[in-house]
């Protein structure tokens, strides 16, 4: 069964290199067996079994969210309200969510994650990562990753989020690199560490990532959000798929990242919600660094599931062009997960988003407006705006 989507005012096609977006006007998209059969000018589209007229809407690849913390319980609106009046963000707020998460049942954690995933679909996200990191004991980290693995292949063990209350630092690191790692290993693809002031040092990060790699996990990092502890050379040396946040970087860090295999993932929702300085994405882009944009959805520092919001902030506050931001939120996210996706090349999974707008530029031009009309994964509609 093949379907031709026609009446597309503009179709954004993402290329291999950062920021490479080709916009085709008066376009069509053909899908067969869940894969892209054709994406290009309507005049050259193949005949299909059925046709759907999108009435002048635009089409973009589905967003790939490479950084999301969806397994937790509770919320921290009071902390947000106090912070917004001037109190700076401290990593310790994570411990509030840890208490709620440990107390929650699997059913509660699963229901909360599924509610957020439904929001992801409504925001045009078609592939996403899920991290643990609010259990911080063997039992709850394991429960978290089991639930994560029910919903995505991109699962990340973030036992090294912070040191939990009531545990000695050395004992906790011993568990994260030993018993906890061995328990979660069957359910985790990635290992992540929050390497920052108030979280883990560069030495500890090295120890934890190396233990994860030895256990067959692939490394990625939260780093340089609050301060620059000097972890960037290590991240590149260990072949981290991505360094996320990266607000504070030296010229030397930028030189090391440029030309490396490590993506820098921007998390605009985090700086927005914590009133923190934004990374200079334009500077990173000029240095030839591959950028991704992710939601960082979590109840403390970035409680958003909206990729269009993150794109709008990246364009307005970080200096990306609308094309660079679109690329970063699609193909960039896929590169940060070292997976396929974020592209409508022939043969790719038909993951795409229909926007109630004439082009992708409207994502940042009309901030805060729900422009996602329909979301498709492998040719199947998972969201339609009523
Ligand atoms: Zn995060």
UniProtKB/TrEMBL annotation:
Pfam families: Amidohydro_1. Its EC number is 3.5.2.7. The keyword Lipid metabolism does not apply. GO terms for molecular function: imidazolonepropionase activity; metal ion binding. One of its GO terms (biological process) is L-histidine catabolic process to glutamate and formamide. GO terms for cellular component: cytoplasm. Residues 59-360 form the Amidohydrolase-related domain. Gene3D superfamilies: Metal-dependent hydrolases, Urease, subunit C, domain 1. InterPro entries: Amidohydro-rel (IPR006680), HutI (IPR005920), Metal-dep_hydrolase_composite (IPR011059), Metal_Hydrolase (IPR032466). Keywords: Histidine metabolism, Hydrolase, Iron, Metal-binding, Zinc. Pathway: Amino-acid degradation. PANTHER family: IMIDAZOLONEPROPIONASE, IMIDAZOLONEPROPIONASE-RELATED. NCBIfam families: hutI. This is imidazolonepropionase. It comes from freshwater metagenome. The lineage of its organism: unclassified sequences, metagenomes, ecological metagenomes.
